[in-house]
């Protein structure tokens, strides 16, 4: 039996050393060391050996098993390393070849303007406030001093869902919600950027959906001069320090006195960009603020209008047509 074991070891070692791939090596391991392998088959005949021979044959069998396992493990490592080297050789990348160019995205011009405005107003101590786009008549109109027969409440001007629910026509509703949530606490210093909706015919300067940014400040001793300072600061930061600005008297239900704000364009003359004014005492009172103690100012501007003037865009529909030729103009180098 010892001779048979030695022959088995010699044959197994030769086959293992000559194995050329991992699959062959796996088959050899099963063939020689598996439960039904050749080494096990030889050892099944130990029952016929004398008590003196069994320990000798058992020790030899264990020695052969250990030797073959070490040989298989060593060969497995060699084959895996060779396989990896071959794979690396096949997958070698020539770094001198021209690279593939991937198209890069860009921030939408409206989003770029919003982020710029937010940076400017945050720098002046404002916070960003948000509110629902599906709004109630109470916050969209009533809280802002729009009387029941005001033209803005007309079904032909707003998108009503029910008689008391509509798509908000301005982000001023966020101002009313914020003041109520503050429960009379001051200061209130917020801006409210967001989408608004009005029933309008789409053309180069009008859209049924557009974006506004509105601002609100409420505190003790707030004056018109502070409103003027905030407006002039943000306009000059957006359009340039040399921008000429003027204020004209106007009317809004939620501010008194009210003004329209224009900037001067050398090619087009004076252009209106926003409306503003001192918060109407009734609006303060409805929102839980004593108008005898607190005052405030508010303003609102169309983000598309600012973007069109800033970038020289002549048609508001470009912002919503998803034309890549238009959007690529705002792509960073």
TrEMBL record:
Record has Lipid metabolism as a keyword: no
GO cellular component: cytoplasm
Signal peptide segment: none
Single GO term (MF): ATP binding
SUPFAM superfamilies recorded: Class II aaRS and biotin synthetases, tRNA-binding arm
Chain ranges of the Aminoacyl-transfer RNA synthetases class-II family profile domain: 111-329
One Pfam entry name: Phe_tRNA-synt_N
Required cofactor names: Mg(2+)
Recorded family membership: Belongs to the class-II aminoacyl-tRNA synthetase family. Phe-tRNA synthetase alpha subunit type 1 subfamily.
Protein name, per record: Phenylalanine--tRNA ligase alpha subunit
Organism: Thermoflavimicrobium dichotomicum
Top-level taxonomy: Bacteria, Bacillati, Bacillota, Bacilli, Bacillales
Gene name in the database record: pheS
